[in-house]
């Protein structure tokens, strides 16, 4: 039994539908433009190997087509385009034939193409797309009139769903802004004058640069903390690298509980970034690009490093020959001004902001779960429509309305 028979046997199609290899009902080619030809003020849209569309001052095609990336996020990025445009050399341009509408092809590829690639490799993902993978793709093909009905239905439904997703994404932004506003307003209300950082902290030390591997050390072996351990909101205990055996005697500054770790050398957005260590991390040592700071209330200084006042000052003080790598000197850090109330007030500030963060983090988690559910239902709807598993002419509540009830949150 061939692939076509297997597919049609596994799924009951409406009358008049069939599976057809895409190569028989479309023209598959690639673009010819190079990324270096992109122009910010170019007149024509330029489709590269990402979701972002840039501009260019010439076009390579004047047609209707579905475009998909040949490298990178294979099977995840699709564009439906008409008229004049330019396509990158590694972007496939699929022009529908007379039996196929471009819009239906766009939805069918979103729903089924990535899954079809799994038989082409032993890997879980395909890193590079080849033309035969596209031309051999088995696409469910209803009559043209039905394709137009399906795409009109999906255009309306997905527009409502996408608007809902945008609402939740705006909520995510508002939650981040709310937390930032709380941090800044809290420190503006802190009683006690500002003094130099050196009067707040009781000790500062750094580690040693040693040769290491990207994989984790074996159990019982020492490791060195990766600088990425401080990139997130909280300390990443898993960001530990194995150390070359000959370098082990050179390790210094073991990670200790109840301290604050800070990146002294990093990109402009990450230099000065800090996290707190809330429990011991046995046999793990500090690299030379991180500081370990001792002070009475580490969470107080952590929250201060989240303030805009602190971040702005770090941007002014951090220096470097490269625009992509900046260093904050110990002398400049120690001289930075910071509000220093008594220890009891420091603890109250830290506890209050920790509680607010926990509350907003729960809201963010619920929002992310809602977005994931909406995207899942969106994909399922498209798949059901392009395979004839639902009657799109039947009157029903829109998927967006159903999701509003199910998610339980109205933005």
Name the features.
four-stranded antiparallel beta sheet, four-stranded mixed beta sheet, 3 domains, 9 helices, elongated, Adenine-n6-DNA-methyltransferase TaqI, Chain A, domain 2
What can you tell me about this protein's structure?
With 411 residues, the chain is α+β, with helices and mostly antiparallel strands. The chain folds into 3 domains: 3-142, Adenine-n6-DNA-methyltransferase TaqI, Chain A, domain 2, CATH 3.90.220; 144-192 and 341-411; 194-335, DNA methylase specificity domains (Adenine-n6-DNA-methyltransferase TaqI, Chain A, domain 2, Alpha-Beta Complex). The chain has 9 helices and 22 strands. The chain has helices at residues 3-10, 102-116, 131-135, 144-189, 298-305, 308-317, 330-335, 343-386, 399-407; strands at residues 18-21, 26-30, 44-47, 53-56, 61-62, 65-69, 78-81, 84-87, 91-96, 138-141, 194-196, 201-206, 223-225, 240-242, 259-263, 265-266, 274-277, 284-285, 290-295, 319-322, 325-327, 337-339. The strands form 7 sheets. The protein has a 4-stranded antiparallel sheet. Strands 4-3-8-5 form a 4-stranded mixed sheet, with no helix packed on it. Helix 4 packs antiparallel against helix 8.
Number of strands: 22
Structural class: alpha+beta
Q: What is the average per-residue confidence, as pLDDT, rounded to a whole number?
A: 91
Can you tell me the CATH topology of the largest domain? Adenine-n6-DNA-methyltransferase TaqI, Chain A, domain 2
Strand order of the biggest β-sheet: 2-9-6-7
> How far apart lie the N and C ends?
51 Å
């Amino acid at each position: 039994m061939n692939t076509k028979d297997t597919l049609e046997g596994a799924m009951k199609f409406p009358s008049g539908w069939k599976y057809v290899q895409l190569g028989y009902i479309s023209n598959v080619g690639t673009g010819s433009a190079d990324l270096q030809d992109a122009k910010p003020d170019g007149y024509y849209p330029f489709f590269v190997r990402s979701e972002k569309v840039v501009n260019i001052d010439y076009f390579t095609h004047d047609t209707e087509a579905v475009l998909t990336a040949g490298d990178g996020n294979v099977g995840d990025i699709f564009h439906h385009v008409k008229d004049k445009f330019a396509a990158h050399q590694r972007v496939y341009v699929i022009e529908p034939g007379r039996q196929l509408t471009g819009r239906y092809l766009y939805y069918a590829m979103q729903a089924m193409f990535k899954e079809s690639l799994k038989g082409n490799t032993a890997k879980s993902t395909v890193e590079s797309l080849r033309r035969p993978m596209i031309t051999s793709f088995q696409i469910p093909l209803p009559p043209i009139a039905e394709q137009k009905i399906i795409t009109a239905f999906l255009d309306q439904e997905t527009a409502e769903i996408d608007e809902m997703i945008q609402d939740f994404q705006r909520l995510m932004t508002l939650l981040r802004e709310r937390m930032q506003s709380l941090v800044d307003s809290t420190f503006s209300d802190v009683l006690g004058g500002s003094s130099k950082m050196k009067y707040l902290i009781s000790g500062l030390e750094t580690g040693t640069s040693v040769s290491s591997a990207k994989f984790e050390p074996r159990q019982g072996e020492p490791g060195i903390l990766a600088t990425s351990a401080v990139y997130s909101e909280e300390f990443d205990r898993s960001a530990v690298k194995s150390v070359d055996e000959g370098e082990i005697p050179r390790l210094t500054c073991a990670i200790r509980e109840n301290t604050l770790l800070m990146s002294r050398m990093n990109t402009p957005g990450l230099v000065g970034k800090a996290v707190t260590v809330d429990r011991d991390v046995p046999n793990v040592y500090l690299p030379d690009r991180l500081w370990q700071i001792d002070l009475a209330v580490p969470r107080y200084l952590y929250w201060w490093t989240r303030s805009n006042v602190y971040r702005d000052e770090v941007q002014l003080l951090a220096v470097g020959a490269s625009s992509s790598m900046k260093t904050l000197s110990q002398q400049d850090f120690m001289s930075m001004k910071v509000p220093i109330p008594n220890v009891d007030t420091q603890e109250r500030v830290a506890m209050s902001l920790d509680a607010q963060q926990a509350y907003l983090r729960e809201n963010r988690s619920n929002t992310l779960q809602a977005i994931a559910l909406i995207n899942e239902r969106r994909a399922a709807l498209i798949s059901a429509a392009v395979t004839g598993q639902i009657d799109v002419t039947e009157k029903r509540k829109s998927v967006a309305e159903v999701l509003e009830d199910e998610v339980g949150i109205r933005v």
